[in-house]
Amino acid sequence: MKKTLSVLAAITALGLTAACGSGNNGNQASGSADSAGSGASGSPSGSPSGAAQESVSAAPKKVELKIFLGGLDRFREQFDGYFEKFAEKEKADKNIEVTFNSEYPGADNAPQILKTRLATGDVPDVFSLHAVNDMPSFYKAGYLTDMTDQPFADKLLDGIKPLVSIDGKVLAVPMESLSWGFLYNKKIFSDLGLTPPSTLSEMKDVVQKLKDNKVTPFLLSYKEDWIPQLFLPLTVGGLVNTSHPDFIDKMNSGQGSFSELQEMFDIIDLVNANGTDRAFEVGNDDGAADFANGKAAMWVMGTWDADAILKANPDADFGTAPLPINDDPKASMIDVSVSTALAVPPNSKNKEVATDLLNFILDDQASNDLYQSLKFNPVSKNHTFKPYPWVEDANVYINQGLSYQDPVIPPAVKDEVGKALQSYYDKKMSKEDVIKDLDKTWKDANAANK
C-alpha cells in the first residue's frame, strides 16, 4: 500500500511539473514581453497573461472580395477609393482584413460574362446589374439574395425602393437613379433663344433654327450599339404611356408587333438626318468630349454621362429634357429608372462581408461623397447633397406628371435593337427589316423565358 501511494504521489508531481513546463512554452510563443508582464503583475509563473490571450485573438480574419462592376470602368477611381474606406471600417468594426479583386468589363459584354459566371458557379461576391433589364431574370434564376432585412433597405427613397424590389423583396442597392431624355447645350439654346421642344413639330423648328445658325443639331455616336439602343426605351416608354398602353402586354403574349409603333422612326430619322459626321467612329467617351465642347447642340444620351462631360469640359452647361416622339406633348416624357444596382448572390463565399459592403454603399455619411463624386442622384433618405442642375431640369417634368418608369423590355430585344439601328443608320436595314427583327427577337425571348 505504501509503495502504491508513493508511486501515485510521484506521478502527480510529474504531471504538475509537465503542466507548468507546457504553460511556459506557450507563453514563449507570445513573446518575451508577455513573460515580463506576467511577472510584474503577479500572475502565476507559466500561466498566459490577459494581454497575451488578447494578442492571440486579435489576429485579423482575411477575406478577398470578388467584385464585378460591368460598364463602370469610368468610375474605377471612385469605387476603388470607396472600397478602401470600407476595408478600414470592416477592420475597425470586425477585425476583418478585406482585399478586393475588382473587374470592370465593358458594358457591351459584361451581362453575358456575368450570366456565364453565375451559371457555372464562378460567382463574384458583389456584382452590378441593370435593375430594370436584368433583375427579373436574375431573380427567377435564384441569383439574388433577399436584402429586405438589411439596414440599407429602410433608407431607400420611396420612389426608388420599388425599382430594386420584386415580390416585395429588396434585392439590390441602387446606384444610378436616372431621370433622363436627351441632353442639350444650354448655352447654345440660350444664345439662339431656344427652349426644349415638347412636340416633334417643335423639334423640327429647333433643328432648322440651329442649322440656320451653322450649329449641328445632334451628336451621333454609334460606335457602341448600346447608344442607338437608347431610342427604344424613350420611344416605347412615351407611346406605351399614352396611345399604346397594351403594347408590352401584347408583345409578351406573342400577339403584338413593332409595326404598331412605326411612328417611333420619325424622331430617329430626324436625328439621323441632322447629326454629326463619322457616327461609327465615335463612341461614348469621344461623344461626351464632343458634346462637352459644343460640337452639337443635342445628344440622345442619359445623364449618367454627366461625369464624363464635365471631365472633358468643367464649364459645360447642359440640361436634360424629354425626347419628343410625335405631336402629342403628353408623350414627351422623362424616363425614370434605376440602371446600375449592386447585388450579392446567395452562394457567395464571403456573403457576410459582401453584405456589409452593400450596407456601407449607403453609409449615412460616406455615401454622400460617393454619390456626389459619381454625379448620381440621391437614392437614400439620408442623402443630403443638393441635386445637380440636370436632375432639377428633369424634376420639372416629373412634377407635371410627364414621366414613366423605364419600360420592362426583354434584354435580348434591347441588345438587338442597338445593332439593328446601327444597320438602319447605315442603310443596310429598312424599317420593315428592323420591325421583323425586333418582333422575332421578342418572340424568341418569350420562348426562352417560359
From TrEMBL:
Q: Where is the composition biased (Low complexity)?
A: 25-52
Q: Family per UniProt?
A: Belongs to the bacterial solute-binding protein 1 family.
Q: Is Signal set as a keyword in this record?
A: yes
Keyword Iron-sulfur listed? The answer is no
Keywords noted in UniProt: Signal, Transport
Q: Where is the signal peptide?
A: 1-18
Q: What is this protein called?
A: Probable sugar-binding periplasmic protein
What InterPro entries does the record tag this protein with?
A: Bact_solute-bd_prot1, SBP
Q: Which PROSITE patterns match?
A: PROKAR_LIPOPROTEIN
The record's section on Gene3D superfamilies has:
Periplasmic binding protein-like II
Give the span(s) annotated as Disordered: 25-56
Q: Where in the cell is it found?
A: Cell envelope
Tell me where on the tree of life, at the top rank, the source sits: Bacteria
Instruction: List, alphabetically, the GO terms of the cellular component aspect.
Output: cell envelope
Q: Pfam families, per this entry?
A: SBP_bac_1 (PF01547)
- Report the protein's function: Part of a binding-protein-dependent transport system for a sugar.
